[in-house]
């Protein structure tokens, strides 16, 4: 299966009630929608995120099995949606990454997650 047969859409959201700007704590949630556009099932095995602080450009990498404790199998035409979160030290940052997936033939493939912006309300000028 080709990686372009899996679509990833990310919807980031700033969570002001959990943030504390005076302590450089900015909390973000992001909802990810993974859609299988191909003709065969695919299972998400692992994730790799690169989170960049917008002010210092310091990066943090997060890797692990599955997402939110699951390794979802996504049938053709189906989607899997989950929400997770991250904390930044600045009001603006970015995330990008990839998912390692496997098809029913045991072939692994990588699905890139394009860079998206995390921005606290009223922080982008």
Spell the H/E element sequence: EEEEEEEE
Largest sheet: 5 strands, antiparallel
* N-to-C CA distance: 42 Å
Name of the CATH first level: Mainly Beta
Classify the helix fraction into a percent range.
under 10%
- What is the assigned CATH homologous superfamily? ApaG domain
Continuous helix count: 0
Determine the structural class based on helices, strands and strand pairing.
mainly beta
CATH topology: Immunoglobulin-like
Going by CATH, the architecture would be Sandwich
Mean pLDDT: 93
Identify the notable features of this structure and list them briefly.
125 residues, mainly beta, Immunoglobulin-like, 3-stranded antiparallel β-sheet
In short:
This protein has 125 residues and is mostly beta strands. The protein has strands spanning 6-14, 26-36, 42-53, 59-65, 73-74, 79-88, 92-103, 108-119.
